[in-house]
Every structure is written in C-alpha cells, then in structure tokens.
Amino acid sequence: MKLRAVEARVLSVAPWLLALSVVGHLLMVAFQAKMTMIDLLVYRNGSPHLFKGDLYEWRLEQYADVFPLPFTYPPFAAAIFTPMSWVPWEASRWIWQLICLGCLYYIVRTSLKLLNLHDPRRVMLWTALTLWIEPVRTTLNYGQINLVLVAILIGTLASARNWVAGAGVGFAAGIKLTPAISGLYFLIQRRWMAAVWSFVAFVAVYGIGWAVSPTQSDKFWFQLLGDASRVGPVGSAINQSLRGALSRTIGDDVGTGKLYVLGVLVAAALTWFAVSKTKDALALIVSVQMLGLLVSPISWSHHWVWMVPALLWLIYEGGHLLCKIAAGLWVLLTGGYLISFLLIAQPNIWDFSRPWYFMLLGWGYPAAGMLTLVAIGLAARRKRNELLPGEEEAADGEPSRVSG
Fold it and tell me: What is the pTM of this model?
C-alpha cells in the first residue's frame, strides 16, 4: 500500500493522535520522567550572572557531577532569558515546554505550507509523530532552545520580505551563533538586502549585549568563541558533527586540522550539489542547515531537530529513490534513539576508546545529513530532466516558494 493511501486513513484520526501525544508528553513533564530540563536550568539560573559580571565563570553543579555546565551563549541570550529567573522553577518548566510544543507545531505547519501541503490534519499527524523522535525528545527533556530557534528561522527565512527574513537570522544568531549559517541561504538566492538586514539585526543584538555588560561581551566574542572543549566533550557520541565523528574514528580530537578541513570541504561540495539546481525554498533551507550541523565543531544530537523539515521534504517532494532511503534512515536513527543507546554504551563522556561498531554507529546523523544533501541534489536534477525545454527555462526564472 502506498504511503499516501496509508496517510489518508491515518489523517482521519490525526486530532486524536496529537491529543494523545501531547497528553503523554505533559504527563512526563508532570512526573519528571527523564525531564530534568538541565539546559533550561542553565539558561534560567545562569542568566542573572550577566548583571553580576561572572556569567562565564559560573557553573551549574546540579545534575552535572562529571561536567559542571557553563553558560555557553552570547550575552544577549542571557539578557532575554533573565525574566525566566523571576518565575518559580516549576512554572518556568511548564511555560518552556508549552512554548516548545507550539514551536514544533509551527515548524511542521510551515514546512508543509512550503510544500503546498497545508492540511490541518496533516500538520496534526506529523506533529504527533515527530514529538517522539530522538532530537525532539532530547530537546524537550533537556529544556533546550533548538525548537524555538528553528521556528524563528524557518518562519522568517520563508518570508518574501527581506527585512523580516534578515532580522530573523540576525536575531537568532545573536542568541546562539550557529544560526548565522542561515545567511548562506540569502547568498544562494541572491537576496542581498536580506543578507544586509541579517547583519544589521546581528549588530543590533550584539550592541544590546555589549550595552548590558561590555566586559562579558568582550570575553565571549574575543576570548571564549571557538573553544569547543568549553562547551563539552567533542568525542562523545552525543556530538554528531563531522568533527565529533572524525574524532571518534581516529581516537583523538581532530581539532581544526587537515582532516577536519577535508570534512568541511566535502560537506560544502555536497551542499553545492544540493542547492545548485533547485529553487525550492524548503530544500534550500534544509541544505544550508545540514551544512551548518555538519561543519559546526559541536552538533549535539538535539541540535538535529532540522531533520523534521528535512524528513517532510524527503517524503513529500523528493521523487528519487535515494530520498526514500534517506527518509527511512532518518526514521530508523531518530525513531530508534541510536544516540541515546551509544551514550549508555560509552564508558564516560570523555573516553574515545570504543569498539569499532560503536564508532561506525556514531556516524549516524552526519551520514544521514550528507545522504540528505545528495538526495536533494539528485531529486532536483531528476526534476529538471523531466521538464520540457520551455518549462526548464521558466523554472530557472521562478522565484522560490516563500510566503508573503
């Protein structure tokens, strides 16, 4: 039975599936089953130290016996999280979880809208299903900010208004630097004004952080930026970047040496292959974000929530056998909680020494990310080859599918 036929039957019960998923999740929050929300605790408890002048010396000792957790984001992030410290911890836990659930729904809705498949029941179905995949679960369990950032980025990048698109990227990059890779999307589309707006917005949020605390701003941007070891163990299985996978392969942190540079060049080449023959907005957004996740020194498994829009594109828009294979691999990896298994299996978060098969499994997300880039590129070329000459010329002149 084809996927669409199965989906048609399931869509009739989509509201019930969403209700059950949300209720199940909220019960986990209520009983704190694997819901320590340790990262939210860092955001909440660490942020006030921006005003005390010791934000980057502060460490969260609670739940962190092996690695006391530092505040790793720019000062602007601490400034906007400070109001969370005014709310009791129990209330802030619930507020954050509800915000993240809303963001997941919005991510699915926007992705499907870009695919011209905006059916409310389909949005409910995929929200209910993706709520239980590993990157989303770990984001929610840790109280991470990933779903919020993805919602900001996918919503603004999809806008036809340059100032909205650019401001969204600049604002998100001011909270956490990695969204800055999204500026590449504007360069690919030759949306120069959007790129300018993203720079202006980033300078503005940097200025806010500097105005609040010049010393902490200078320390973050000119001393701590780029120190991956401060963020956490590069070689741990939870780090699913190319640097993490390469480090586990050779048994030591490759740093920014030749092997890492080679990996970056391969990822860049695959990204170019993916984006050079398509004007599909969601395909371009996904490709750029896959590149960011691959080349970043640290890409924790929960950072890979970008695989939600990637999975939707592969399933509904791919049209190539490799798209189905890539979609199946993402379902297997994230539905099977591979990284959680590898974390349990490793001796400790710092030990690179593992059996060879754990090392291979530790390539899971990077391998799926690179396969996604190849699948997007092949699908785009197949689609172009299927067009008549006149249709191909028209497609070259079409703007990307963006919302007004």
Answer: 0.94
